[in-house]
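To make the argument concrete, we let one protein speak, a sequence paired with a row of C-alpha cells, as a model reads it:
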Amino acid sequence: MNFKLKWAIYSLVFLLVLAACSDDDEVTDPEQTMGKVGNYWSAGASGYDDGRLTITQNSGGDVVGSLTFEGDTYTIEGKVTDNAIYDYVYSNGDKSKPFTLVKFDANVGDKWEFNVGNQKVVREVVRKSTEDDVEYGFWLVKTIDVKETIPTGTIIKTSESEVKEILWQFNHKFGFISATIKTVDGKTTKVNGYSTNAAD
C-alpha cells in the first residue's frame, strides 16, 4: 500500500479520535472528558508502523493533538465532549458543519448523514454491546459500532476518497477501539487501538 493511502488511513483514524464540534449541552471540561492534556492513544495495523496521538493543549474543550506516524509528527485539532465525537473531515475544516461520528447514548439504527457535493456520506450504528465482549489490549470492553459508507467519487479536501467503508468501534471510557477500513480497490485493513491512558 502506498504512503498516500497509508497516511489517509491513519489520518482518518486519528482525526476522528478527536472531535471537531459539540452540542451546546455537552460537557467539554477536560477533567470530565478524554480531552485532558497528556492523554494518548496508540494504534497499529499489520504491516505498518504504529501511530500515537497525544493531546498537547486543551482550551475549553478545544484540543490540539500531536500525531507521530512513520517518523513524522503532525498537528491535529478538534474538540472533545463527554458523550459524542464529531468531525469536520468532510466539511474541509469548517467547524460550523460538524458531522456526528458517534454518540455514546445512541441506539442501533441511529443514523447521521453529511452531504459532500452531490454525494451523501452515511454513518449508522450497527451494533451496541450489552456486555464486555470486544478485546482491547488486556481487557474486554463494550463497544458502539458505527458503519461509515463513503460513495465512490466523494471528495475529501481536493482528492477523491480512496476509502469506501469504515467500521468504527468506540468505547465510552477508552475512546477509539478499532477501525476496519475497506478501500475502493477492494483491500481491507484493520487498525487496532491497544493502549490509552484516557480512562485513568
